[in-house]
Amino acid sequence: MSDDLRTALLLFVAVASVYFATVTGVTSSNDGSHYALTRAIADGRGWEISPYLDFTENQDYATRDGRYFSDRPPGTALIAAPLYALGTFLPDPLVDVPSKHDPGNAQMLYAVMLAPLAMAGAVTLFYGVVRRAFGISRWAALLGALAFAFGTIAWKYGSVLYSHALAALVIWGAVALILHMEETGPTPGGALGLGLLLGCAPLTEYTSGLFTLIGGVYAVLTFRSRVDGWLVPALFVLGGLIPAVLLAAYNTVNFGGPLQISRFYADTTLWPENEDLGATFSTPIPQGLLGLLVYGSENQGIFLLSPVTLLALPGLVPLFRRDAKRALLIVGTFAAFLLLFSASTTFNAGTDDGRYLATGIGLWMVPLAVWLDEQEGRLLPVLATGVLLALSVRAQLMHIAYSWNYDLTPQMLAARAADPANIGLVLRTAFPNVLNLPLLWLVIACGGAVAWLASRRRDPSVGRDHANA
């Protein structure tokens, strides 16, 4: 096993473990809506969530002809449902978590496990991409990955069953595959996989369809001169069609047409911004940019909540100097998401953190990792990074502790900031699931065993070589 692979595996387990320790069950109407659909699928009830409507807190739902559905895209629930079902065969939680919805259901915790696994996967792919595609040193790539994992809102949304963790994993999987095929050349398997990932982006998060467009155009322009014959393009199209047809079928069965997405059927008396696209994207972009980057409408922007992200700014020049084309894919995609959500009326959806950027925030950390690589051996930049990262980690920790279903309040803290009682209270609040970590490690071990057996079946010479030795 190479040093890079060993580092990546350790990074994945460590990040997933911190995220899973942070899990407090199903926390709000948003993840409650995803979880309601997860239960409906796993319990064999199809797509209708009427029996689980309470999980949505009677607000995050879609309705048609007197029936109720999740107003979220179905991708998260489609992946969480098998994990929920897996919970019938695996041990019950060692301790109960104070879940707001469906408390005491042992299988619930396995469904929520999707978020830590998916966001940890995105962080790990980030490490691999910056190492391989941009030639960054191991220490800079690892520090950049840790800044992404714990210095941004990726931590919070790697711990709750929102759509952002799975959407981030899909985007990073597609980016990693595109850049890999740039080096090795397009293959039938790679084309099929890339098509699947690009097609799955809007299945996990409707707005990620923007990445489908950007990534698809980049792939076509990059590989069109390197493809002979029809097989690779056909498989690329087929891969994209599979999730597209699934989403179209879901929309048609539940809402009457392939383009009738669930958000159009949300209760507009509660969410008037869902009346149409014009209502959804009606915020003046300068106002939205200020809110997403610094502060506005009670929203803590990324530079305020994650000061370490400021170091990506000086990293833009060396990133484009190393590879302008790839830098344009990375930074251009983040800029497109930033502008899209700046125009959205829901950039401050009650979470005070511009949560939609959680899907693409790792893209902004790529120039940060490049900047770190450029500063190797320089004491002051390294110290500045350490200070900004420490401030960011503290901000994320407190942001989680003050979030829904964690419920820390300033009144609960002692007057002295450094009082050990304060530290203990914050840690207990932010890590309510730490004693259930063996469940996560068991699932990771099972997944690793399956992957190892599959790799041996693909390469039977491994066993023969061992026997001949």
Task: Describe the model.
This protein has 469 residues and is mainly α. Among the domains are: 125-152 and 165-391, no CATH class; 437-468. 62% of the residues lie in helices and 3% in strands. It has 21 helices and four strands. The protein has helices at residues 3-22, 29-42, 75-86, 108-112, 114-133, 138-150, 154-157, 164-184, 188-204, 209-223, 231-255, 277-280, 285-293, 302-305, 312-322, 324-342, 361-374, 379-401, 420-430, 437-458, 461-468, and strands spanning 61-64, 67-70, 295-296, 299-300. The strands form two sheets. The protein has a two-stranded antiparallel ribbon with strand order 1-2. A hairpin with a 2-residue loop joins strand 3 and strand 4. The longest helix has 25 residues, at 231-255. It is globular.
Largest sheet: 2 strands, antiparallel
Count of DSSP-assigned helices: 21
> What is the H-and-E element order?
HHEEHHHHHHHHHHHEEHHHHHHHH
Q: What share of the residues does DSSP label as strand, in percent?
A: under 5%
Radius of gyration: 22 Å
Q: In total, how many beta strands?
A: 4
Low-pLDDT regions: 462-469
Overall structural class, as computed from helix and strand content, comes to: mainly alpha
Mean pLDDT: 93
| Helicity range | 55-70%
Oligomer category: single chain
Shape: globular
Please report the distance between the alpha carbons of the first and last residues.
19 Å
Strand order of the largest sheet: 1-2
